[in-house]
Amino acid sequence: MYVMKWSVIAMAVAAGTSQMALASSQSESEGFVEGSSLTILNRNLYMNRDFRDDGSSRDAPYNDNQSYREAWGHGFIGTFESGFTQGTIGVGVDAIGLLGVKLDSGSDRAWPDIFPTDSEGRPQDDYSHAGAAIKFRVSNTVVKYGTQFVALPVFSTDDARLLPETARGALITSGEINGLELNAGRFTALSGKSESDHDSVGLEELNLVGGTYAFGENLSTSLYYSDVKDNFEKYYGNVNYNMALGAVQSLAFDFNVYQTEYESERTGTGSDEDNTIWSLAATYGVGAHKFTAAYQKSHGGYFSAGGTPVGYDYGIDGGGTVWLGNSIQYSDFYYKDEQSWQVRYDLDMAAYGVSGLSFMTRYVNGSNIDMQVGPDAEESEWDIEAKYVFQEGPAKDLSLRVRQAFYQATNGLDNDLSDTRLIVEYPLSIL
């Protein structure tokens, strides 16, 4: 199966090359130094989460009876990308350097998901992580091996905390055919967003293949497959369609679906299980306003050793591998047999003369969650967000963002909580 998957990609790339549908990116290479860039993203993050009780929470494996978590830190996310050498085969090097510095936290409110802790449970003052990758380009196909960020629906490194996750492995990205992007990869390590170890998540081997095809400006489709050793096989599909309705109106539809086949090593039940989860979102835009309605349904799953209902499962394949309409600030609404609906409103203040300022609010309600014992559970979340990006002057591109979530659940599923995040980001272009 492994050979066949790579053969399919090889044939598709070869077919694209024979069609010569696109001008070769490699033929336009500027050179190793001339095409290089170095950026440092400064991220200042403050987060607190109030569980309003004894702290027995979804933050497993950190269930340590903390009723409150709080952390404040500054992260430096450095990325260097070289250009490609000129010639038929271009060669380049990319590098990533990450440093997180604690500004405030404590053992009584430690958050291991943001700062690593010592043997006594105290947050470390700082932590760092670095890696590099070599890359080759032939025509419009790039092969990259080493440490990298990945953003694919079946393997996506998470960037929702102070520092992002990083993955180590090989990824092929091919754009030989106009409108078609193909991907194939093999990864053997994943570093957690609050860890310095290159393999802190425990990923042994992940193979993936898939692609996205744009039929035009309005319609695109995606299909991906991944196999995570001793965990699960996962299939993903997407259809996205958008259209203009006059000068200031638009309508968009986004459909996502995952089919996951769990192995007994993952479920811990001694048997294989499966889950299908899908979401459909429709967005109507008029001027500065956008109105979204979404529905999401999970079918099947399993129960963990602790009795928690598991529908769609991810994390070993990247903390961002949940490309679903109702995956929001705190909850993903992905439990066993859960159904959920969302209403959302977005406002862009540029239409009112305040460029860079935007607001968002949404509400999601989930129900019919199979709890194995007792009645079904329900959960709900209400989010409010505001963001401002400076448009000019010395502070150009500096962004200020406030995110607030209020979460509630029933029947022992989880605790009621509030989640507050203040994020300041400032990118610096060195090269």
Automatic annotation (TrEMBL):
Domain of life of the native organism: Bacteria
Signal peptide feature range: 1-23
Keywords, in A-Z order: Signal, Transport
CC terms in the record's Gene Ontology section: membrane
Entry keyword Cytoplasm: no
Gene Ontology molecular function: any one: porin activity
Family note: Belongs to the outer membrane porin (Opr) (TC 1.B.25) family.
Protein name, UniProt field: Porin
